[in-house]
Amino acid sequence: MTETVESIVNCKNVSVYYGQKKAINNISIDIGRRSITAFIGPSGCGKSTFLRTINRMNDTIDSCRIEGTVIVDGKDIYDPSIDVVPLRAKVGMVFQKPNPFPKSIYENVAYGPRIHGLASNKSELDDIVEKALKGAGLWNEARDRLDESGTSLSGGQQQRLCIARTIAVEPQIILMDEPCSALDPIATSNIEDLMSDLAKEYTIIIVTHSMQQAARVSQKTAYFHLGNLIEYGDTKEIFVRPKDSQTEAYISGKIG
Amino acid sequence: MTKEHINSAFDDDLNELAKLITTMGNLALSQFTAVIDGMADDEVKLKSLIENDKKIDHLESEIYNKTVEIIAIRSPQANDLRRIITAPKIATFLERIGDYSKNIIKRRERMIAEDGDLNILKKVNGISEIARELLIDVLDALARLDAKKAKLVWEGDEELDAQHNIVYKKIYRGMVEKGSSASDINALFIAKNIERIGDYCTSIAEQIYFIVNAEMLDEKRPKTEI
Question: Which fold has domain B8-213?
Answer without folding.
Answer: Methane Monooxygenase Hydroxylase; Chain G, domain 1 (1.20.58)
